[in-house]
Write a structure and sequence with these properties.
By secondary structure, this protein is α+β, with helices and mostly antiparallel strands. The protein has a single domain (about 5-90), classed as 2-Layer Sandwich (Alpha-Beta Plaits), CATH 3.30.70.100. It contains 2 helices and 5 strands; from the N terminus they run βαββαββ. The N and C termini lie far apart (about 35 Å).
């Protein structure tokens, strides 16, 4: 069933680099069985592509809005996206 599949591109603003945010997100996504990737951007934001069951994606977004201890999330933008080509959730090089 593809109607239960949600894919989002997420832009996270705030104090989210050098605080373990990417490792935290990878752990959350892997635990929820989601596919996608995460990377730092030169403007200080973190960009995420996440794809999977709608409820799992919603749970991931709730965690992404909190972040790990030490992070401070000021804003989260959500945009519908195409699912990633590969399975699994990984870190991508910064851009």
């Amino acid at each position: 069933m593809t109607d239960d599949l949600t894919s989002l591109r997420i832009r996270v603003e705030g104090f989210v680099q050098a605080v373990g945010y990417r490792n935290f997100a990878i752990e959350q996504a892997s635990g929820l069985g989601l596919d996608g990737w995460i990377r730092n951007r030169t403007d200080g934001t973190v960009e995420i592509l996440v794809s999977g069951g709608t409820k799992a994606v919603e749970a991931f977004v709730a965690q992404a809005m909190k972040g790990p201890p030490g992070a401070r999330v000021n804003n989260v933008e959500l945009h519908n996206a195409e699912p990633p080509a590969e399975k699994g959730f990984r870190r991508r090089p910064s851009v």
